[in-house]
Amino acid sequence: MHAADIITKKRNGEELSENEIAWLIQAYTDDKLPDYQMAAWLMAVFFRGMTDRETAALTMAMANSGEQVDLSQVPGIKVDKHSTGGVADTTTLVLAPLVAAAGVPVAKMSGRGLGFTGGTIDKLEAIPGFKATLERQEFIANLQQYGIAVTGQSAAIAPADGKLYSLRDVTATVESIPLIASSIMSKKIASGADKIVLDVKVGNGAFMKTRADAVILAEAMVNIGRLVGRETVAILTNMDQPLGMAIGNSLEVKEAIELLSGRGTAALKEVCLELGSQMLVLGGQAKTPADGRRLLTNLIDNRQALAKFGEFITAQQGDSAILQDTGKLPQAGFVQKVTAPCQGYITAVNAAQIGYAAMRLGAGREYKGQTIDVAAGIQMQCRLGQYVSCGQPLAIIYTNDKSKLKQADEILQQAIEIKEQPTVIPPLIIGLVD
Ligand code: URA
Ligand code: CA
């Protein structure tokens, strides 16, 4: 096979065969295909798109490019959840113990945060002692014993995707539906998921700004799942404001504990119940989403999910005393209120800007490998539609770097809009694609 022929075919809008795609991805992974040819092919895909069959073939070629995690020794249907990325998205911290408590094994390989979105591994590492990198055997042993294990995604998972993503980043080819869909699905499949629940975020704090775009991405991923035999369901959820009230690693762990203790933000709980009930249905632990929701609500109310969270933290060498005393989590040296400059209704909360402010405070990374401040972040004090009086706190900012307070305050003042008249609040759960 010749790369130039495959590029020509794609450029002309013809459908590539599974073999052609597999050959191209293998050659690129093995450093036998230069970046300039792969870049030309990516640009042809960007303009011509891919059929569902091609997208599925690309997904499997990338999934097969490295290690395939085999979870067959672990009984039960392994259902993974993936979010396309948002702000104050603490769902994984809540759902992992919650769904595990309901009897669906949770085998998660998660990433670190980059830019204005956080990463589950960083959040877990805010827990004193927590070990977020498990050897494969330890991962499987914990799964067998506790029904839950979370580890950082190793470079051995779908290496073709990592290499392609770096190239896409510098060739203006990130924003292609088949490339995004195959990138996400290849990592889930290589990580051993039998079935997948996707949380596709829509709004100003998300990759997809409109419902129409989000539906197209969701359908692309659900179709891949169907074609490769990994049943996939996607829920579209709103990201026009931070989902929970906490942004930042320690603060989000605290919010997850509060939710599992029967308190916590209504919107975060709602999205967790919606995603979790789908996970229970796919995992065979509930007949309908409504049954799943009842079961999960029970596991919160009777604190069994909180107990599972403690078991999980202890199993990965963390200090589960944080469940009784969240003051044992790392605390920031500087705390400052951001107050309303006038009275009125909250009509817009720019989630991306708030995520950016949290990153600047030290909660996230501007570049790969940057050290973060797990205690840094933002605790929101208002939600869309709420009426606030002049001087009322809109948010509380936390950091260990005093010089960061002023800029964060300015960004937050800009990000939160207050008007005399209330606005229409967008629905939280926007749709389902299955
Ligand atoms: N997230 C991914 O994992 N891949 C993409 O291409 C975009 C978002
Ligand atoms: Ca369908």
UniProtKB/TrEMBL annotation:
Pfam families, sorted: Glycos_trans_3N (PF02885), Glycos_transf_3 (PF00591), PYNP_C (PF07831)
UniProt cross-references to InterPro entries, sorted A to Z: Glycosyl_Trfase_fam3 (IPR000312), Glycosyl_Trfase_fam3_N_dom (IPR017459), Glycosyl_Trfase_fam3_N_dom_sf (IPR036320), Nuc_phospho_transferase (IPR035902), PYNP-like_C_sf (IPR036566), PYNP_C (IPR013102), Pyrmidine_PPas_bac/euk (IPR018090), Pyrmidine_PPase_CS (IPR017872)
GO MF annotations in UniProt: pyrimidine-nucleoside phosphorylase activity
Keyword Magnesium among UniProt keywords: no
Catalytic reactions of this protein: uridine + phosphate = alpha-D-ribose 1-phosphate + uracil; thymidine + phosphate = 2-deoxy-alpha-D-ribose 1-phosphate + thymine; 2'-deoxyuridine + phosphate = 2-deoxy-alpha-D-ribose 1-phosphate + uracil
All copies of domain Pyrimidine nucleoside phosphorylase C-terminal, residue ranges: 345-419
PROSITE patterns: THYMID_PHOSPHORYLASE
Keywords assigned: Glycosyltransferase, Transferase
Presence of keyword Transferase: yes
EC code: 2.4.2.2
Enzyme class: transferase
Membrane-traversing stretches: none
Cited SMART domains: PYNP_C
Job of this protein: Catalyzes phosphorolysis of the pyrimidine nucleosides uridine, thymidine and 2'-deoxyuridine with the formation of the corresponding pyrimidine base and ribose-1-phosphate.
Oligomer status and interactors: Homodimer.
Family the UniProt entry places it in: Belongs to the thymidine/pyrimidine-nucleoside phosphorylase family.
Protein name from the UniProt record: Pyrimidine-nucleoside phosphorylase
Upper lineage: Bacteria, Bacillati, Bacillota, Negativicutes, Selenomonadales
Gene coding for it: pdp
